[in-house]
TrEMBL record:
CDD domains: EcCS_like
Classification of source organism: Bacteria, Pseudomonadati, Pseudomonadota, Alphaproteobacteria, Rhodobacterales
Molecular function via GO: citrate synthase activity
Organism: Limimaricola litoreus
Active-site residues, record numbering mapped to chain: 269, 327
Protein name: Citrate synthase
Amino acid sequence: AGVFTYDPGFTSTASCDSTITYIDGEAGILTHRGYPIGQLAKESHYLEVCYLLLYGELPSAAQLEEFETLVTRHTMIHEQMHNFFRGFRRDAHPMATMVGVVGAMSAFYHDSTDINDQHQREVASIRLIAKMPTIAAMAYKYSIGQPFVYPRNDLDYASNFLRMCFSVPAEEYEVNPILARAMDRIFTLHADHEQNASTSTVRLASSSGANPFACIAAGIACLWGPAHGGANQACLEMLREIGTPDRIPEFIARAKDKNDPFRLMGFGHRVYKNFDPRAKVMKESADEVLDLLGIENNPTLQVAKELERVALEDPYFAEKKLYPNVDFYSGIILDAMGFPTSMFTPIFALARTVGWVSQWKEQLADPQLKIGRPRQLYLGAAQRDYVDIENR
Ligand code: CMC
């Protein structure tokens, strides 16, 4: 038997090498292919960042145009998938629907499930990135009993998603370009984050040779939890529950109480121990969007800002290096745009799809790829003899 390291939660285990995303948690640095996230969020846009993550370099104008055309050509989903959607309960959480529908893409698009074929890998990647907004919007429409809205390929990625969510047959939704820009920025800020839980799940699933749609469905399932992507929904619900700044001390006390499982949602990060660079951009974006919509004195934003201030001054949070993370302010923007909290995590999932796909492709290209197979520290009973049921 070999010697292995016991590392619960993989706090100090590197599971792969990668050239996609770099994080320096102490310095609050996040780069994709070397480019800082702040610059990408403000100066680039989501589909360009998708190209960068997938292919390693920023595209030329011609490459970008070709890529955007490819993505917009694949936004429709197979018409038969509509029936699949209709099998879900109306009140299903859109994440539950997405786990099922994305997993089922392997049945609807089995022509792109051969992972040994380079071309098919490419087709599967594009299909996933292109169809995810359609699937997320359909999950939403279905949950509120409205008809599905077909994608419009002349719109940009974010505008198309907003329209698919908010248009109704009786009234075409006019996409506000500033809101579309804020949506795009949310997508960009969530695009990839190296070997987080859902990405590691995708890599682990794929290490057995599973098909891409099943692997991404596994990632969506993992993302759903409140310690990971589900934090954006949980955070806004918490801010609403707090309601007014005078109740903040009560919640801070609960977060510090070892006997209370309550945590400040949107606070803390496994890797960032100084600040989350994504949160900074997200906070600016929240101000911009509320400004644009003329929402003054938004009570949730007031609670968020005051909570951030109080927590950052509190020695408990300082000692444990707990800072607002990307999800602390994203919910405020999504809420102002009109999304219900149940759509927050699906939006994270659609944005993270490019990260999962890029990491999946990188892993498959690794000549040293092995099935992921962690070991364990066994603490159970020593070997013993089976006892007949009458003699127990
Ligand atoms: N509120 C109160 N205390 C906290 C919090 C929090 N949000 N986060 C961590 N702590 C405490 C924790 O109780 C522990 O204390 P002690 O050392 O006394 O036992 C200490 O800080 C370290 O926490 P940990 O759970 O060992 O740290 P971790 O790296 O395993 O967890 C985390 C990281 C993000 C899961 C955690 O900070 C958390 O649960 N945060 C709230 C959920 C959240 O916002 N998640 C989104 C993360 S960013 C987006 C994403 O990745 O999807």
